[in-house]
Amino acid sequence: MKRKVLLLKFGELFLKGRNRHDFINLLKSNILNKLKDLSCKLQETQGRLVLTDYDQSQESVIIEKLQTVFGLIGVADAVEIDTSLEEIKSELLNIDLFGVTSFKIESKRADKTFPLTSMELDKLLGGVVLDKEPNLKVDLYNPQLKIFVEVRTNGKTYIYKNLHACAGGLPLSSGGKGLLLLSGGIDSPVAGYLMAKRGLEIEAIHFHSYPYTSLQAKEKVINLAKEISTYCGKIRLHIVSFTEIQEQIHKNCDAEYMITIMRRIMMRIAQKIAIKNNLGAIITGESLGQVASQTMQSINVTNSVVDLPVFRPVIAFDKEQIMDLARKIGTYETSILPYEDCCTVFLPKNPVIKPTIKRAELLEKNLDIESLVNEAVANEEIMEINQY
Ligand code: ATP
Ligand code: MG
Q1: Residues with CB under 5 A from ligand 2 (ion)
Q2: Which of 105, 157, 241, 308 has its CA 20 to 30 A from that of 209?
């Protein structure tokens, strides 16, 4: 029997030894969840997943959705046939070669009972194509068209020429859960995307200083959460007012330490909310040396108030690299909208570049940190974001 299918490739899951099966099951359920509004079937054959029985007119929509599923590295629109040399040869002749000048066959024989090796199959099938189109050239290094032939262990062979790259990474929620500090900037949405790509499920926390910051600033962050949820799945967004805290710091602490202390309090609140919601890590969009609050000394002073691991996936990225990724995942245009973030309210002229823990602790004696933190947590607003 011959039919059109989508052949799904997954990457690194191979490395996972005995856990491999759990990873594949998770990947399968993430895929089905992503496609829950469309009817289809998903089958597994060693090393591949095969999507069948879907509406052909929806194929490009399905491919686009699959490209946002972490754990997949590629999707091919393929023809599935029963494995036999004759069938393979005749199917090969159906491939549209219009305008093609050079090609290469790339065979893969997962089914070791098939009588020809991959190399033998490459040669033989190359010959079949050349018999039909003698003007074509085989080019092994830089072919205009690659034709893939995969003889799988389920008695089926898959033939395709288009492989659409997917997001890669590990299946969502294979790595636990983390709390993303989500500002309205360029970096933190990218940081959330990168950790979700390594399998972390994400909740997010945003601090606003209404009425110093506008309602549009909050709306912008909600939109960013929606945008990353295309990849990260459902996101619970914790929205926390920082107004009172900022006023207190402004009144009672040295201006040059204002940002340092703000960030230490943000971390304390984040940790409290993380623990309350069973989240095992905190994620930020910090990048070494980008601003005064992101020098090694500043990071040390903010880090010292929390015990949970803090993941900073863009720590070594240049701004340019972060911006490229933001464009790729579709958050850039929202991030550059010109609304104030709470960090820019009461901004001191000369923030300290090399703060010390000792000095920060001394200045914090002027504040009732515990009740400020508790009050902020008690008054959080929670939103469930789902663009999945
Ligand atoms: P971003 O582009 O992510 O806003 P940034 O370059 O503006 O980063 P900072 O403002 O110093 O850098 O913030 C560093 C990190 O602290 C952010 O990446 C984010 O994780 C967190 N953060 C900053 N402001 C907020 C906020 N208002 N709410 C939640 N997290 C925040
Ligand atoms: Mg910012």
Answers
A1: 183, 185, 341
A2: 308
